[in-house]
Amino acid sequence: MYIKQLSIFIENKAGRLEDMLSILKDNGINLVSLSLADTSDYGVLRLLVSDPEKGKAALKEAGVSCRTTDVLAVKLAHKVGQLQELLEIICKAEINIEYMYALATGKDDASIVLKTSDIARAADLLEKAGASFVTQAELANI
Amino acid sequence: MIWNESKECMSRDEMQALQSKRLVKAVNRVYHNVEYYRKKMQALGIEPGDIKGIEDITKLPYTTKDDLRDTYPFGLFAAPQSEIVRVHASSGTTGKATVVGYTRKDIDIWSECVARCLAGAGVTSQDTIQIAYGYGLFTGGLGAHYGAENLGATVVPMSTGNTKKLTTMMKDFGVTAIACTPSYLLHIAETLEENGDLDKIKLKAAICGAEPWTEQMRLQVEEKLGINAFDIYGLSEIMGPGVACDCIYHKGLHVHEDHFYPEIVSADTLEPVADGETGELVFTTLTKEGIPLIRYRTKDLTSITREKCECGRTTARISRFKGRSDDMLIIRGVNVFPSQIEAALLEMGGTTPYYMMIVDRVNNLDTLEVQVEVEERFFSDEIRELENLTKKIAHVIQQAIGLAVKVKLVEPHSLERSMGKAVHVIDKRKLV
Asked: pLDDT-derived band of residue B95, with 50, 70 and 90 as boundaries?
Protein backbone atom coordinates (compact mmCIF):
# COMPACT_ATOMS: atom_id res chain seq x y z
CA MET A 1 0.00 0.00 0.00
CA TYR A 2 3.01 2.30 0.22
CA ILE A 3 4.10 4.20 -2.79
CA LYS A 4 7.54 5.50 -3.59
CA GLN A 5 7.95 9.23 -3.69
CA LEU A 6 10.98 10.67 -5.45
CA SER A 7 12.57 13.50 -3.40
CA ILE A 8 15.14 15.85 -4.96
CA PHE A 9 17.42 18.49 -3.41
CA ILE A 10 17.28 21.72 -5.39
CA GLU A 11 19.16 24.93 -4.78
CA ASN A 12 17.10 28.12 -4.94
CA LYS A 13 18.58 29.18 -8.24
CA ALA A 14 17.00 30.13 -11.53
CA GLY A 15 16.54 27.18 -13.85
CA ARG A 16 17.30 24.35 -11.44
CA LEU A 17 13.70 23.04 -11.22
CA GLU A 18 13.44 23.03 -14.98
CA ASP A 19 16.80 21.20 -15.23
CA MET A 20 15.53 18.42 -12.98
CA LEU A 21 12.26 18.07 -14.86
CA SER A 22 14.05 17.90 -18.17
CA ILE A 23 16.14 14.95 -16.94
CA LEU A 24 12.91 13.13 -16.07
CA LYS A 25 11.30 14.05 -19.36
CA ASP A 26 14.30 12.78 -21.34
CA ASN A 27 13.89 9.46 -19.58
CA GLY A 28 10.20 9.21 -20.40
CA ILE A 29 9.04 9.60 -16.83
CA ASN A 30 5.56 10.96 -16.25
CA LEU A 31 4.83 13.26 -13.32
CA VAL A 32 1.65 12.46 -11.46
CA SER A 33 1.86 14.91 -8.60
CA LEU A 34 4.36 17.17 -6.93
CA SER A 35 5.00 19.41 -3.99
CA LEU A 36 7.85 21.84 -3.50
CA ALA A 37 9.01 22.76 0.00
CA ASP A 38 11.33 25.73 -0.04
CA THR A 39 13.63 27.74 2.21
CA SER A 40 15.58 30.84 1.22
CA ASP A 41 18.61 28.79 0.16
CA TYR A 42 17.20 25.51 -1.13
CA GLY A 43 14.10 23.45 -1.67
CA VAL A 44 12.99 19.83 -1.66
CA LEU A 45 11.02 18.73 -4.69
CA ARG A 46 8.76 15.80 -3.91
CA LEU A 47 7.37 13.92 -6.86
CA LEU A 48 5.06 11.04 -7.56
CA VAL A 49 6.08 9.63 -10.92
CA SER A 50 5.32 6.73 -13.24
CA ASP A 51 8.63 4.99 -12.46
CA PRO A 52 10.42 6.29 -9.32
CA GLU A 53 13.39 3.89 -9.48
CA LYS A 54 14.15 4.75 -13.08
CA GLY A 55 13.78 8.44 -12.24
CA LYS A 56 16.15 8.10 -9.31
CA ALA A 57 18.74 6.30 -11.42
CA ALA A 58 18.56 9.00 -14.11
CA LEU A 59 18.93 11.82 -11.59
CA LYS A 60 21.82 10.09 -9.82
CA GLU A 61 23.53 9.65 -13.14
CA ALA A 62 23.30 13.43 -13.54
CA GLY A 63 24.86 13.90 -10.08
CA VAL A 64 21.69 15.06 -8.33
CA SER A 65 21.06 14.37 -4.63
CA CYS A 66 17.80 12.43 -4.53
CA ARG A 67 16.15 9.53 -2.78
CA THR A 68 12.94 7.61 -2.70
CA THR A 69 10.70 7.72 0.35
CA ASP A 70 7.69 5.61 1.30
CA VAL A 71 4.50 7.63 1.53
CA LEU A 72 0.79 6.87 1.68
CA ALA A 73 -1.69 8.12 -0.91
CA VAL A 74 -5.16 7.83 0.61
CA LYS A 75 -8.23 8.08 -1.61
CA LEU A 76 -10.84 10.59 -0.55
CA ALA A 77 -14.40 11.05 -1.80
CA HIS A 78 -15.46 14.56 -2.82
CA LYS A 79 -17.40 15.06 0.41
CA VAL A 80 -17.25 17.63 3.17
CA GLY A 81 -15.07 16.57 6.12
CA GLN A 82 -13.28 13.65 4.46
CA LEU A 83 -9.78 14.90 5.10
CA GLN A 84 -10.55 16.05 8.64
CA GLU A 85 -11.93 12.61 9.55
CA LEU A 86 -8.86 10.95 8.17
CA LEU A 87 -6.49 13.25 10.05
CA GLU A 88 -8.44 12.76 13.25
CA ILE A 89 -7.60 9.05 13.18
CA ILE A 90 -3.91 9.80 12.75
CA CYS A 91 -3.76 12.57 15.32
CA LYS A 92 -5.55 10.56 17.99
CA ALA A 93 -2.83 7.93 17.64
CA GLU A 94 -0.29 10.72 18.22
CA ILE A 95 1.31 10.15 14.87
CA ASN A 96 2.97 13.25 13.47
CA ILE A 97 2.37 14.38 9.91
CA GLU A 98 5.69 15.46 8.36
CA TYR A 99 4.08 16.81 5.21
CA MET A 100 1.16 16.25 2.86
CA TYR A 101 -0.03 17.29 -0.56
CA ALA A 102 -2.87 16.51 -2.96
CA LEU A 103 -2.97 14.02 -5.79
CA ALA A 104 -5.64 14.18 -8.49
CA THR A 105 -6.46 10.65 -9.65
CA GLY A 106 -9.80 11.01 -11.42
CA LYS A 107 -13.10 12.83 -11.64
CA ASP A 108 -14.88 11.11 -8.79
CA ASP A 109 -12.27 11.13 -6.08
CA ALA A 110 -9.03 12.81 -5.05
CA SER A 111 -6.16 11.51 -2.96
CA ILE A 112 -4.00 12.93 -0.26
CA VAL A 113 -0.30 12.04 -0.06
CA LEU A 114 0.97 11.68 3.49
CA LYS A 115 4.37 11.29 5.10
CA THR A 116 4.01 10.47 8.79
CA SER A 117 6.35 9.78 11.66
CA ASP A 118 5.12 6.15 11.76
CA ILE A 119 3.98 5.07 8.33
CA ALA A 120 3.21 1.44 9.22
CA ARG A 121 0.92 2.32 12.10
CA ALA A 122 -0.76 5.11 10.14
CA ALA A 123 -1.47 2.73 7.25
CA ASP A 124 -2.80 0.12 9.62
CA LEU A 125 -5.16 2.53 11.38
CA LEU A 126 -6.44 4.02 8.15
CA GLU A 127 -7.02 0.62 6.62
CA LYS A 128 -9.03 -0.48 9.64
CA ALA A 129 -11.11 2.66 9.25
CA GLY A 130 -11.92 1.55 5.72
CA ALA A 131 -9.62 3.84 3.73
CA SER A 132 -8.29 2.73 0.39
CA PHE A 133 -4.88 3.57 -1.08
CA VAL A 134 -3.50 4.45 -4.44
CA THR A 135 -0.97 1.81 -5.51
CA GLN A 136 2.28 2.11 -7.39
CA ALA A 137 0.71 0.27 -10.32
CA GLU A 138 -2.11 2.79 -10.51
CA LEU A 139 0.41 5.65 -10.59
CA ALA A 140 2.24 4.06 -13.49
CA ASN A 141 -0.95 4.07 -15.56
CA ILE A 142 -2.20 7.56 -14.95
CA MET B 1 57.06 60.27 21.29
CA ILE B 2 59.82 57.69 21.55
CA TRP B 3 59.36 55.43 24.57
CA ASN B 4 62.84 53.89 24.78
CA GLU B 5 65.29 56.06 22.89
CA SER B 6 68.33 54.05 23.94
CA LYS B 7 66.95 50.99 22.15
CA GLU B 8 64.78 52.44 19.40
CA CYS B 9 67.41 54.87 18.17
CA MET B 10 70.53 52.70 18.53
CA SER B 11 73.15 52.83 15.81
CA ARG B 12 73.12 49.81 13.48
CA ASP B 13 76.45 48.64 14.89
CA GLU B 14 75.24 48.77 18.47
CA MET B 15 72.04 46.98 17.49
CA GLN B 16 73.96 44.19 15.75
CA ALA B 17 76.24 43.77 18.76
CA LEU B 18 73.23 43.54 21.06
CA GLN B 19 71.44 41.09 18.76
CA SER B 20 74.58 38.95 18.51
CA LYS B 21 74.97 38.76 22.27
CA ARG B 22 71.30 37.93 22.74
CA LEU B 23 71.19 35.35 19.95
CA VAL B 24 74.06 33.40 21.46
CA LYS B 25 72.22 33.34 24.77
CA ALA B 26 68.90 32.35 23.15
CA VAL B 27 70.51 29.49 21.21
CA ASN B 28 72.13 28.18 24.36
CA ARG B 29 68.82 28.37 26.15
CA VAL B 30 66.88 26.35 23.59
CA TYR B 31 69.71 23.86 23.07
CA HIS B 32 69.91 23.05 26.75
CA ASN B 33 66.24 23.41 27.75
CA VAL B 34 64.27 22.19 24.73
CA GLU B 35 64.88 18.64 23.57
CA TYR B 36 63.07 19.25 20.30
CA TYR B 37 65.46 22.06 19.32
CA ARG B 38 68.50 20.17 20.56
CA LYS B 39 67.60 17.24 18.29
CA LYS B 40 66.90 19.57 15.37
CA MET B 41 70.28 21.23 15.78
CA GLN B 42 72.08 17.95 16.27
CA ALA B 43 70.49 16.63 13.09
CA LEU B 44 72.07 19.57 11.27
CA GLY B 45 75.36 19.05 13.08
CA ILE B 46 75.20 22.39 14.88
CA GLU B 47 76.24 23.13 18.41
CA PRO B 48 75.59 26.31 20.36
CA GLY B 49 79.29 27.17 20.02
CA ASP B 50 78.88 27.45 16.23
CA ILE B 51 76.66 30.48 16.71
CA LYS B 52 78.96 33.37 17.52
CA GLY B 53 76.90 36.29 16.33
CA ILE B 54 73.82 37.38 14.47
CA GLU B 55 75.51 36.66 11.12
CA ASP B 56 75.46 32.95 12.02
CA ILE B 57 71.68 32.89 12.28
CA THR B 58 71.29 31.37 8.82
CA LYS B 59 72.96 28.19 10.11
CA LEU B 60 70.00 27.59 12.40
CA PRO B 61 66.95 25.52 11.49
CA TYR B 62 63.55 27.05 10.81
CA THR B 63 60.55 26.64 13.09
CA THR B 64 56.99 26.36 11.77
CA LYS B 65 53.49 26.10 13.17
CA ASP B 66 53.78 22.35 12.57
CA ASP B 67 56.62 22.18 15.10
CA LEU B 68 54.30 23.78 17.64
CA ARG B 69 51.60 21.27 16.76
CA ASP B 70 53.99 18.33 17.03
CA THR B 71 55.11 19.43 20.48
CA TYR B 72 51.61 20.38 21.69
CA PRO B 73 51.02 21.69 24.27
CA PHE B 74 54.26 22.65 26.07
CA GLY B 75 57.02 20.82 24.19
CA LEU B 76 58.84 23.96 23.08
CA PHE B 77 58.72 25.67 26.46
CA ALA B 78 62.20 26.56 27.70
CA ALA B 79 61.24 27.50 31.25
CA PRO B 80 59.91 25.27 34.04
CA GLN B 81 56.20 25.48 34.70
CA SER B 82 56.88 27.27 37.98
CA GLU B 83 58.26 30.22 36.00
CA ILE B 84 55.43 30.34 33.46
CA VAL B 85 52.91 32.93 34.65
CA ARG B 86 50.54 32.89 31.70
CA VAL B 87 49.61 30.95 28.57
CA HIS B 88 47.82 32.09 25.44
CA ALA B 89 46.61 30.03 22.52
CA SER B 90 45.71 30.61 18.89
CA SER B 91 44.41 28.46 16.08
CA GLY B 92 46.54 25.66 14.79
CA THR B 93 46.19 24.39 11.26
CA THR B 94 44.13 21.45 12.48
CA GLY B 95 42.19 20.70 15.64
CA LYS B 96 45.02 21.43 18.05
CA ALA B 97 45.65 24.95 19.28
CA THR B 98 49.04 26.64 19.19
CA VAL B 99 49.98 27.22 22.83
CA VAL B 100 52.52 29.77 24.05
CA GLY B 101 53.79 30.49 27.56
CA TYR B 102 55.24 33.60 29.20
CA THR B 103 57.51 34.09 32.17
CA ARG B 104 57.15 37.25 34.24
CA LYS B 105 60.08 38.74 32.33
CA ASP B 106 58.39 37.87 29.01
CA ILE B 107 55.27 39.73 30.11
CA ASP B 108 57.41 42.72 31.10
CA ILE B 109 59.13 42.79 27.71
CA TRP B 110 55.80 42.42 25.95
CA SER B 111 54.41 45.37 27.93
CA GLU B 112 57.53 47.35 27.05
CA CYS B 113 57.07 46.64 23.34
CA VAL B 114 53.38 47.55 23.37
CA ALA B 115 54.23 50.74 25.31
CA ARG B 116 56.70 51.64 22.54
CA CYS B 117 53.94 51.19 19.96
CA LEU B 118 51.44 53.28 21.93
CA ALA B 119 54.00 56.02 22.58
CA GLY B 120 54.77 56.08 18.86
CA ALA B 121 51.05 56.63 18.30
CA GLY B 122 51.18 59.64 20.61
CA VAL B 123 49.53 57.96 23.60
CA THR B 124 50.75 59.14 27.03
CA SER B 125 49.81 58.72 30.68
CA GLN B 126 47.37 61.60 30.14
CA ASP B 127 45.26 59.45 27.82
CA THR B 128 42.30 57.14 28.35
CA ILE B 129 42.43 54.10 26.10
CA GLN B 130 39.78 51.54 25.30
CA ILE B 131 41.12 48.07 24.62
CA ALA B 132 38.59 46.58 22.24
CA TYR B 133 40.35 43.38 21.32
CA GLY B 134 39.00 40.12 22.67
CA TYR B 135 40.27 39.29 26.15
CA GLY B 136 41.11 35.68 26.79
CA LEU B 137 43.26 33.11 25.07
CA PHE B 138 43.73 35.55 22.18
CA THR B 139 46.80 37.71 22.85
CA GLY B 140 45.18 40.94 21.62
CA GLY B 141 43.21 42.01 24.67
CA LEU B 142 45.62 41.28 27.51
CA GLY B 143 48.69 42.19 25.45
CA ALA B 144 47.45 45.67 24.62
CA HIS B 145 46.06 46.03 28.15
CA TYR B 146 49.37 45.40 29.93
CA GLY B 147 51.23 47.64 27.50
CA ALA B 148 48.81 50.52 28.05
CA GLU B 149 49.05 50.11 31.82
CA ASN B 150 52.83 50.05 31.59
CA LEU B 151 52.66 53.34 29.71
CA GLY B 152 50.49 54.73 32.49
CA ALA B 153 47.40 55.44 30.43
CA THR B 154 43.94 54.92 31.94
CA VAL B 155 42.78 51.61 30.55
CA VAL B 156 39.14 50.78 29.80
CA PRO B 157 39.11 47.00 29.18
CA MET B 158 36.12 46.90 26.79
CA SER B 159 36.84 43.63 25.00
CA THR B 160 34.60 43.15 21.96
CA GLY B 161 30.95 42.61 21.22
CA ASN B 162 29.05 45.56 22.65
CA THR B 163 29.48 48.50 20.29
CA LYS B 164 26.73 50.55 21.90
CA LYS B 165 28.36 50.38 25.31
CA LEU B 166 31.75 51.10 23.74
CA THR B 167 30.57 54.27 21.96
CA THR B 168 28.65 55.47 25.01
CA MET B 169 31.74 55.11 27.20
CA MET B 170 33.89 56.66 24.50
CA LYS B 171 31.75 59.79 24.78
CA ASP B 172 31.17 59.75 28.54
CA PHE B 173 34.73 58.92 29.60
CA GLY B 174 36.38 61.26 27.10
CA VAL B 175 38.32 58.35 25.60
CA THR B 176 41.31 59.56 23.55
CA ALA B 177 42.74 56.31 22.18
CA ILE B 178 41.51 52.90 21.14
CA ALA B 179 43.11 49.57 20.31
CA CYS B 180 41.04 47.22 18.15
CA THR B 181 40.94 45.51 14.76
CA PRO B 182 40.74 47.94 11.82
CA SER B 183 37.43 46.54 10.62
CA TYR B 184 35.93 46.96 14.08
CA LEU B 185 37.17 50.56 14.18
CA LEU B 186 35.36 51.25 10.91
CA HIS B 187 32.25 49.68 12.36
CA ILE B 188 32.58 51.88 15.45
CA ALA B 189 33.04 54.95 13.23
CA GLU B 190 29.87 54.12 11.35
CA THR B 191 27.92 53.60 14.55
CA LEU B 192 29.09 57.01 15.82
CA GLU B 193 28.16 58.60 12.51
CA GLU B 194 24.68 57.04 12.45
CA ASN B 195 23.98 58.35 15.93
CA GLY B 196 25.33 61.81 15.12
CA ASP B 197 28.04 61.36 17.75
CA LEU B 198 31.14 61.99 15.64
CA ASP B 199 31.67 65.46 17.09
CA LYS B 200 31.01 64.32 20.67
CA ILE B 201 34.15 62.19 21.01
CA LYS B 202 37.69 63.16 21.96
CA LEU B 203 39.43 60.28 20.20
CA LYS B 204 42.81 61.17 18.71
CA ALA B 205 44.52 57.86 17.99
CA ALA B 206 43.70 54.29 17.08
CA ILE B 207 46.15 51.42 17.20
CA CYS B 208 44.82 48.70 14.95
CA GLY B 209 46.04 45.24 14.19
CA ALA B 210 45.32 41.50 14.25
CA GLU B 211 44.08 41.56 10.68
CA PRO B 212 45.26 42.93 7.35
CA TRP B 213 43.99 46.28 6.13
CA THR B 214 44.83 48.59 3.29
CA GLU B 215 46.36 52.06 3.35
CA GLN B 216 43.08 53.23 1.85
CA MET B 217 41.15 51.87 4.84
CA ARG B 218 43.59 53.54 7.20
CA LEU B 219 43.15 56.93 5.52
CA GLN B 220 39.39 56.46 5.41
CA VAL B 221 39.13 55.86 9.14
CA GLU B 222 41.53 58.73 9.91
CA GLU B 223 39.36 61.10 7.92
CA LYS B 224 36.04 59.89 9.24
CA LEU B 225 37.10 60.07 12.90
CA GLY B 226 39.58 62.94 12.63
CA ILE B 227 42.31 60.85 14.26
CA ASN B 228 45.69 59.26 13.57
CA ALA B 229 45.45 55.54 12.91
CA PHE B 230 48.40 53.20 13.38
CA ASP B 231 49.16 49.71 12.22
CA ILE B 232 50.34 47.32 14.93
CA TYR B 233 51.63 43.85 14.12
CA GLY B 234 52.23 40.76 16.12
CA LEU B 235 51.62 37.06 16.37
CA SER B 236 51.17 34.96 19.45
CA GLU B 237 54.00 32.58 18.53
CA ILE B 238 56.47 35.47 18.76
CA MET B 239 54.71 37.38 21.53
CA GLY B 240 51.39 38.92 20.52
CA PRO B 241 50.59 42.45 19.37
CA GLY B 242 53.53 44.83 19.57
CA VAL B 243 56.20 42.97 17.62
CA ALA B 244 56.14 45.94 15.22
CA CYS B 245 54.16 49.16 14.79
CA ASP B 246 54.22 52.09 12.43
CA CYS B 247 55.00 55.66 13.48
CA ILE B 248 53.43 58.98 12.53
CA TYR B 249 55.26 58.89 9.17
CA HIS B 250 53.57 55.61 8.21
CA LYS B 251 56.54 54.42 6.22
CA GLY B 252 56.62 50.84 7.40
CA LEU B 253 56.27 49.16 10.76
CA HIS B 254 59.18 49.52 13.19
CA VAL B 255 60.24 46.09 14.41
CA HIS B 256 61.37 45.87 18.02
CA GLU B 257 64.43 44.10 16.76
CA ASP B 258 66.33 44.20 20.02
CA HIS B 259 63.84 41.48 21.05
CA PHE B 260 62.68 39.98 17.75
CA TYR B 261 65.21 39.52 14.98
CA PRO B 262 63.57 39.77 11.56
CA GLU B 263 64.70 38.06 8.37
CA ILE B 264 63.08 38.05 4.96
CA VAL B 265 63.53 34.82 3.03
CA SER B 266 62.26 33.45 -0.23
CA ALA B 267 59.13 31.41 0.49
CA ASP B 268 60.25 28.88 -2.12
CA THR B 269 63.97 28.44 -1.54
CA LEU B 270 64.07 29.72 2.08
CA GLU B 271 67.23 31.62 1.14
CA PRO B 272 67.48 35.16 2.55
CA VAL B 273 66.52 37.92 0.10
CA ALA B 274 67.96 41.42 -0.09
CA ASP B 275 66.50 44.36 1.84
CA GLY B 276 63.59 45.83 -0.13
CA GLU B 277 62.72 42.54 -1.79
CA THR B 278 59.50 40.76 -0.91
CA GLY B 279 59.66 37.44 0.88
CA GLU B 280 58.45 35.59 3.93
CA LEU B 281 58.98 37.24 7.29
CA VAL B 282 60.91 35.09 9.76
CA PHE B 283 61.44 35.96 13.42
CA THR B 284 63.87 34.76 16.05
CA THR B 285 63.00 35.74 19.61
CA LEU B 286 66.16 37.09 21.21
CA THR B 287 65.06 37.52 24.81
CA LYS B 288 62.07 35.25 25.30
CA GLU B 289 62.24 32.74 28.13
CA GLY B 290 58.90 30.93 28.07
CA ILE B 291 58.86 29.76 24.50
CA PRO B 292 61.83 31.09 22.55
CA LEU B 293 61.48 30.39 18.84
CA ILE B 294 64.34 30.18 16.38
CA ARG B 295 63.69 31.40 12.84
CA TYR B 296 59.93 31.09 13.07
CA ARG B 297 58.29 31.28 9.66
CA THR B 298 55.37 33.69 9.98
CA LYS B 299 54.15 32.98 6.43
CA ASP B 300 53.46 36.70 6.13
CA LEU B 301 54.90 38.25 2.98
CA THR B 302 56.61 41.61 3.23
CA SER B 303 59.89 43.44 2.63
CA ILE B 304 62.29 45.14 5.03
CA THR B 305 64.37 48.32 5.19
CA ARG B 306 67.05 49.14 7.73
CA GLU B 307 67.34 52.82 6.85
CA LYS B 308 66.79 55.38 9.57
CA CYS B 309 63.21 56.69 9.70
CA GLU B 310 62.24 60.36 9.67
CA CYS B 311 60.86 59.87 13.18
CA GLY B 312 64.38 59.29 14.49
CA ARG B 313 64.06 55.57 15.11
CA THR B 314 66.75 53.38 13.61
CA THR B 315 64.92 50.08 13.99
CA ALA B 316 64.26 48.00 10.88
CA ARG B 317 60.91 48.60 9.24
CA ILE B 318 58.72 46.06 7.47
CA SER B 319 56.33 47.21 4.77
CA ARG B 320 52.58 46.70 4.75
CA PHE B 321 51.86 43.00 4.30
CA LYS B 322 51.49 41.72 0.78
CA GLY B 323 49.67 38.50 1.62
CA ARG B 324 50.59 35.11 2.98
CA SER B 325 52.58 32.18 1.73
CA ASP B 326 50.03 29.72 3.16
CA ASP B 327 46.25 29.54 3.07
CA MET B 328 45.58 31.08 6.49
CA LEU B 329 42.75 33.59 6.59
CA ILE B 330 42.23 36.26 9.20
CA ILE B 331 38.53 36.71 9.82
CA ARG B 332 37.46 39.24 12.44
CA GLY B 333 40.97 39.01 13.83
CA VAL B 334 40.77 35.23 14.20
CA ASN B 335 43.21 32.99 12.33
CA VAL B 336 41.34 30.44 10.27
CA PHE B 337 42.76 27.64 8.15
CA PRO B 338 40.63 25.85 5.57
CA SER B 339 42.04 22.62 7.03
CA GLN B 340 40.16 23.38 10.26
CA ILE B 341 36.87 23.53 8.36
CA GLU B 342 37.81 20.31 6.64
CA ALA B 343 38.55 18.58 9.93
CA ALA B 344 35.27 19.82 11.39
CA LEU B 345 33.27 18.58 8.41
CA LEU B 346 34.98 15.23 8.77
CA GLU B 347 33.28 14.96 12.15
CA MET B 348 30.01 14.69 10.24
CA GLY B 349 31.13 11.16 9.47
CA GLY B 350 32.53 9.43 6.43
CA THR B 351 34.44 11.56 4.00
CA THR B 352 34.52 15.35 3.87
CA PRO B 353 31.80 16.79 1.66
CA TYR B 354 33.01 19.31 -0.89
CA TYR B 355 32.86 22.80 0.55
CA MET B 356 33.70 26.40 -0.18
CA MET B 357 34.39 29.21 2.27
CA ILE B 358 33.06 32.58 1.17
CA VAL B 359 34.68 35.40 3.12
CA ASP B 360 33.25 38.86 2.70
CA ARG B 361 33.08 42.16 4.49
CA VAL B 362 29.62 43.58 5.11
CA ASN B 363 29.33 46.96 6.88
CA ASN B 364 33.03 46.62 7.70
CA LEU B 365 32.57 43.36 9.55
CA ASP B 366 33.94 40.13 8.16
CA THR B 367 31.46 37.41 7.35
CA LEU B 368 32.09 33.75 6.73
CA GLU B 369 29.72 31.56 4.80
CA VAL B 370 30.50 27.91 4.32
CA GLN B 371 28.75 26.29 1.39
CA VAL B 372 28.48 22.53 1.70
CA GLU B 373 27.40 20.20 -1.03
CA VAL B 374 24.50 18.01 0.05
CA GLU B 375 25.55 14.53 -0.89
CA GLU B 376 22.91 11.85 -0.98
CA ARG B 377 23.91 10.48 2.41
CA PHE B 378 23.06 13.85 4.02
CA PHE B 379 19.90 14.41 2.04
CA SER B 380 16.49 14.09 3.61
CA ASP B 381 13.08 14.79 2.05
CA GLU B 382 12.16 16.71 5.20
CA ILE B 383 13.07 20.38 5.51
CA ARG B 384 13.36 20.00 9.27
CA GLU B 385 16.07 17.40 8.87
CA LEU B 386 17.96 19.59 6.42
CA GLU B 387 17.69 22.52 8.82
CA ASN B 388 19.07 20.33 11.59
CA LEU B 389 21.93 19.36 9.30
CA THR B 390 22.67 23.03 8.64
CA LYS B 391 22.70 23.78 12.36
CA LYS B 392 24.89 20.79 13.12
CA ILE B 393 27.47 21.77 10.52
CA ALA B 394 27.45 25.39 11.75
CA HIS B 395 27.94 24.12 15.30
CA VAL B 396 30.93 21.86 14.58
CA ILE B 397 32.62 24.58 12.53
CA GLN B 398 32.00 27.18 15.21
CA GLN B 399 33.45 24.84 17.82
CA ALA B 400 36.52 24.36 15.65
CA ILE B 401 37.32 27.95 14.71
CA GLY B 402 35.55 30.00 17.36
CA LEU B 403 33.64 32.11 14.87
CA ALA B 404 29.96 32.16 13.98
CA VAL B 405 29.38 31.00 10.42
CA LYS B 406 26.48 30.87 8.05
CA VAL B 407 26.13 27.44 6.49
CA LYS B 408 24.46 27.14 3.13
CA LEU B 409 23.56 23.78 1.64
CA VAL B 410 24.15 23.55 -2.09
CA GLU B 411 23.67 20.90 -4.75
CA PRO B 412 26.32 18.26 -5.37
CA HIS B 413 28.94 19.28 -7.96
CA SER B 414 27.67 22.87 -7.96
CA LEU B 415 30.79 24.33 -6.33
CA GLU B 416 33.55 25.25 -8.68
CA ARG B 417 36.36 22.70 -8.99
CA SER B 418 39.77 23.96 -9.85
CA MET B 419 42.40 22.17 -11.83
CA GLY B 420 45.22 20.95 -9.60
CA LYS B 421 45.20 21.98 -5.96
CA ALA B 422 41.70 22.26 -4.56
CA VAL B 423 40.60 25.81 -3.81
CA HIS B 424 38.25 26.07 -0.88
CA VAL B 425 38.21 29.80 -0.29
CA ILE B 426 36.69 32.74 -2.09
CA ASP B 427 37.80 35.91 -0.33
CA LYS B 428 35.77 38.84 -1.59
CA ARG B 429 37.43 41.35 0.74
CA LYS B 430 39.89 43.72 -0.83
CA LEU B 431 42.74 43.72 1.64
CA VAL B 432 45.91 43.99 -0.37
From this structure: low
- Residue B48 confidence (pLDDT): 96
CATH topology agreement for domains A3-69 and A70-140: yes
d(CA B6, CA A128): 96
Minimal CA separation from A51 to chain B, in Å: 18
Chain A residues with CB-CB distance to B371 below 8 A:
none
Q: pLDDT, tens digit, for every residue of B205-260?
A: 999 998 888 888 899 899 999 999 999 999 999 999 999 999 999 999 999 999 99
The matching CATH number, chosen from 3.40.50.10240, 3.30.1240.10, 3.40.190.10, 3.30.2130.10, for A3-69 is 3.30.2130.10
Q: Which amino acid is at B374?
A: V
Q: What residue type is assigned to position B187 of the chain?
A: H
DSSP for B98-167 reads EEEEEEHHHHHHHHHHHHHHHHHTT--TT-EEEE-SPPSSSHHHHHHHHHHHHHTPEEE---SS-HHHHH
Residues of chain A neighbouring B412 (CB-CB closer than 8 A)? 63-65
DSSP string over B174-201: T--EEEE-HHHHHHHHHHHHHTT-GGG-
Alpha-carbon distance A51 to A11, whole Å?
24
Strands (E), B247-293: 253-255, 260-265, 279-285
Is the per-residue pLDDT at B421 higher than 70?
Answer: no
Question: Can you say whether the dihedral through the CA atoms of B69, B70, B74, B75 is positive or negative?
Answer: negative
**In angstroms, rounded to a whole number, what is the distance separating the alpha carbons of residues A66 and B374?**
10
Interface of B with A (CB under 8 A): 374-376, 378-384, 386-387, 408-414
Structural domains of chain B, ranges and CATH numbers in brackets: 5-326 (3.40.50.12780), 331-427 (3.30.300.30)
The pTM score is 0.80
A57 interaction partners in chain B (CB closer than 8 Å): none
d(CA A139, nearest CA chain B) in Å: 20
Least Cα distance to A27 among A2, A1, A9, A51 occurs for A51
**Which residues make beta-bridge pairs with A103?**
A111
**Domain map (residue ranges) of chain A:** 3-69, 70-140
- Report yes or no: A63 at the B interface, CB cutoff 8 Å: yes
Are A11 and B384 within 8 A, CB to CB?
Answer: no
Side-chain-side CA neighbours of B258 within 13 Å: the count stands at 21
At A96, the amino acid letter reads N
The SS3 call for residue A68 is: strand
Whether the CB of A15 is below 8 Å from some CB of chain B: the reply is: no
The domain defined by A70-140 folds into VC0802-like (3.30.2130)
**pLDDT tens-digit readout, B98-131:** 999 999 999 999 999 999 999 999 999 999 999 9
